[in-house]
Amino acid sequence: MTRWQSDPILTVEHLTMRFGGLVAVDDLSFTVGRGDITAIIGPNGAGKTTVFNCITGFYKPTEGRIAIALDKADPPTMDRLTASGARLSADRNILLLDRMPDFEIARDAKVARTFQNIRLFGGMTVLENLFVAQHNKLMVASNYTIGGIFGLASYRKGQAAALERAKYWLEHIDLIERADDPAADLPYGDQRRLEIARAMCTEPRLLCLDEPAAGLNPRESAQLNKLLRFIRDEHGISVLLIEHDMGVVMEISDHIVVLDYGEKISDGAADAVRNDPKVIAAYLGVEDEEVDAVEQEVMQ
Amino acid sequence: MANSTEESALSTSAVGAEIEDERRAEAVRGEPPFTVNPPSGDAFGAALKDAIISALIALALAGPMVGLRTETAIGGLSLTQNWMPVAAIVAVVFFGRLFLTLFVWGRSSGIRSVAATSFRLLPSGTQLSNWKVPGLIGAIAFTIVMPFLPFADRYWMDQAIVILTYCMLGWGLNVVVGLAGLLDLGYVAFYAVGAYSFALLATNFDLGFWVCLPMAGILAAGWGLILGFPVLRLRGDYLAIVTLAFGEIIRVVIINWYDFTNGPDGISGIPRPTLFGIPFDRSDEGFAAIFGLEYSSIQRIIFLYYIILVLALITNFVTLRLRRLPVGRAWEALREDEIACRSLGINTTNTKLTAFATGAMFGGFAGSFFATRQGFISPESFTAIESFIILAVVVLGGLGSQLGIVIAVIFLNTAFEVLRELQEYRMLIVGLAMVLIMVWRPRGLISTRHPSITLKGKAKAVRAELVGEGSG
């Protein structure tokens, strides 16, 4: 049994998202294994970003359940929680994301995300971006501003800890030298890495990346692969990513979910998905028997 | 000068050719227009010499032009002598020149390297750059001794009080508009709430200024929250319209709720502030009698001046401090990108409400000061034009810049006073001047943003075009 079957951190069940008459996501179910790198792929308009927005609370799903289990949880407990109408279990282990507003998903369910079109705080420095990401922790350390105004020791300690965490991530994305530069001044690839570092500063359990390799050159893509592996292996963070760059997807993913027209057409390990005729058909838009010929052409 | 620039550029470790060029360009830009003796070697001595020469030139110019004045008298012209202003001009030129050479123009040379290279953690005013610290101390020292300088008569004290009141209002609104990026056109409502809270509490319950001041602030902050809730979902133009309407609602309620606010007749007999219970009047228990001074009405004005000075400085320092705390950083992040804020777990509702409440609280303080200073308030003092002037101050000064607001307030107040005799053309000229300034500096007089925290000590200011204006 694979990890995404035995110990999922995220369980998406019967997720449907309608915009008026348009069904962007149709009865989608999949799981994300704890400690896995999971990729969602699919042609343009397949509904990948919509799924992301549902998971992170930016859209409210029309139907379905999205549950996160911070520690291992069994399905009956999840069902009881759903029936009870609450949004999180008494032990705060299971959280139903479809019932939570976006900022609570980031704060309590520990799901962090990045955006397809980078959303950094451009007029703030790199370091400030990483400090904003630690807002909730720093608010507590500053006694909700009161202690901070008077410069109490607890706040200074909290701030020093935040600085250490920021420095740690800046070193890992090779931006420590540019810590005091405005984020908007960074080159594109650095901005992508900074957005990931900023998400990591929220100390997430699940990191959702929307096309992290878009617009990167091969060297930067390789750097990104290294960074994602580091996040998974050294920090035990589960990663869910949308990606078009198959080099990145096939190399680092433990588990791939393929969407087309809002439906799941394939789900499994990288090798299984790569050879799935339905996937090839969806990507190349031809009959199965012609696939080989077209692939040959594409190779040349 | 060029020599020392080169040295400092070399001595700094990580300098790319680009940075070096930049520094050189800066050094050239910063060169005084006509350096008599460039400060090299003994920098202070040279600067002193330079300042003395400048002062002599000023004396030569100001002496005949200001010091001697012809007046038509019976039987021809007579010459009156007027040396006080000349002395003032010479002193300003001397100290100004000295200050500029030492701390402003000189900062690209050796003086700059004094900057601590270590990380500065404390979120206080310690991150100001070198020339700003003496500048700030000088400015505060000037405002403290100002009432005792020879020129400070009733007129100048009144002007100073008006300027400080508007600075305080500008700084308060700056939290909402400049930091959080929420366009608020109804700020005068909080000014009115503060003034009426104080007036009503004082006249009905016989409470003094110092008791009412915090209560007026709290009440205004409460109204800030009340305004905040309905406008949370609004952005840009829609937010501006609703806040504008809110300001008008408050004013119209004050006019029409006759039983409570006395309507258009206003509230009179608002108590004057006291110094630990000592009133400023002619009585035997009055300030003058107790301290053995001759009674003069200016004593009360000077006292009022100090109250607003302290209130304004508190506003300024609290705002500067908040900017370096998580809540202030969240305000700025909200201005930059609200969606990204939410993805980082920041409760944007609370963040917006704290911005509204903080700004409103400072407006409330300023309002109660206004009430105690005037002794009489009526709804006429709280029209929408007041909101626009305060907003103009914030925009003209540069969104988010505390110093820019001071410059803008002084500019606007001076313009209004100088043009007073032109009557109806006054607004026309002030408006035109504002248009020209905005064409010249679209992002306000001081448009760069200073990072709230740095890793390597001194960080460069963020260029204006990178800083968001906020959409809400």
Describe this structure in words.
The complex is a heterodimer of chains A (300) and B (472). Helix content of chain A is 42%, strand content 21%. Chain A has 14 helices and ten strands. In chain A, the strands form two sheets. Chain A has a six-stranded mixed beta sheet, with helices on both faces. In chain A, a hairpin with a 2-residue loop joins strand 9 and strand 10 (263-268). In chain A, helix 5 packs parallel to helix 9 (188-200) and helix 6 (135-141) packs antiparallel against helix 8. The mean pLDDT of chain A is 88. With 472 residues, chain B is mainly alpha-helical. Chain B folds into two domains: 2-114, no CATH class; 145-398, Orthogonal Bundle (ABC transporter involved in vitamin B12 uptake, BtuC). In chain B, 63% of the residues lie in helices and 3% in strands. Chain B contains 18 helices and four strands. Chain B has helices at residues 2-11, 17-30, 43-67, 83-104, 132-145, 154-179, 188-205, 209-231, 236-256, 258-261, 287-290, 298-323, 326-336, 338-343, 348-374, 384-397, 402-418, 425-440; strands at 68-73, 76-81, 267-268, 376-377. In chain B, the strands form two sheets. A two-stranded antiparallel sheet of chain B has the order 1-2. In chain B, strands 3-4 form a two-stranded antiparallel ribbon. In chain B, 38% of the residues are buried. Residues 1-40 and 107-128 of chain B have low confidence and may be disordered. Chains A and B meet through helix 4, helix 5, helix 6 and helix 8 of A and helix 12, helix 13 and helix 14 of B.
